[in-house]
Amino acid sequence: MGDLLQPTHLIILAVVAFLLFGARRLPELGKGLGEGLRGFREGIKGVTDPPPTSTQQNTQAQPPAAPPASTTEPPRQS
Questions:
Q1: Is residue 29 within 8 Å of residue 21, measured between CB atoms?
Q2: Mapping DSSP to helix (H, G, I), strand (E, B) and coil, where does residue 53 land?
Q3: List of residues 6+ apart from 21 with CB closer than 8 A
Q4: Better pLDDT: 1 or 68
Q5: How far apart are alpha carbons 50 and 57 in whole angstroms?
Q6: With 0-12 CB in 10 A as exposed, 13-18 as middle and 19+ as buried, what is 26?
Q7: What is the CA radius of gyration of the chain?
Q8: d(C-alpha 21, C-alpha 29), whole Å
Q9: 26, 17 Cβ separation under 8 angstroms
Q10: 3-class state of residue 30 by DSSP
Q11: Could you report the per-residue pLDDT of 56-66, keeping only the tens digit for each?
Q12: Cα dihedral: 15, 16, 20, 24 (round 10)
């Protein structure tokens, strides 16, 4: 069972894949497989990253400060 991936076995698998899918579909299948693996790695990376610290959360949650009121104008009288 240890000799499963010998060069002759890989060549036979490549020929069978070529016959089943054709020359046009093989690059598309490889691209889809690569994108799937990339997405899987990014998903795993997101799970293992530590959560943001509390100081980062507090600075993002605060609304922008209102501009200061003008003190040069006198109060209006009715």
A1: yes
A2: coil
A3: 29
A4: 68
A5: 13
A6: middle
A7: 31
A8: 9
A9: yes
A10: helix
A11: 555 555 666 66
A12: -20
Nearest to 43 by CA among 53, 31, 35: 35
DSSP 3: T
Tokens 């997101």 belong to 46
- Summarised one tens digit per residue, pLDDT across range 3-55 is 777 889 989 988 998 898 888 888 898 899 999 999 999 888 877 766 667 66
Nearest to 5 by CA among 14, 27, 34, 23: 14
CA–CA distance, 57 with 78 (Å, rounded to integer): 46
C-alpha span between 55 and 39 (Å, rounded): 30
DSSP letters spanning 9-77:
HHHHHHHHHHHHHHHHHHHHHHHHHHHHHHHHHHHHHHHHSPPPPHHHHHHHHSPPPPPPPP-SSPPP-
Q: Give the Cα separation of 23 and 69 in Å (integer).
A: 71
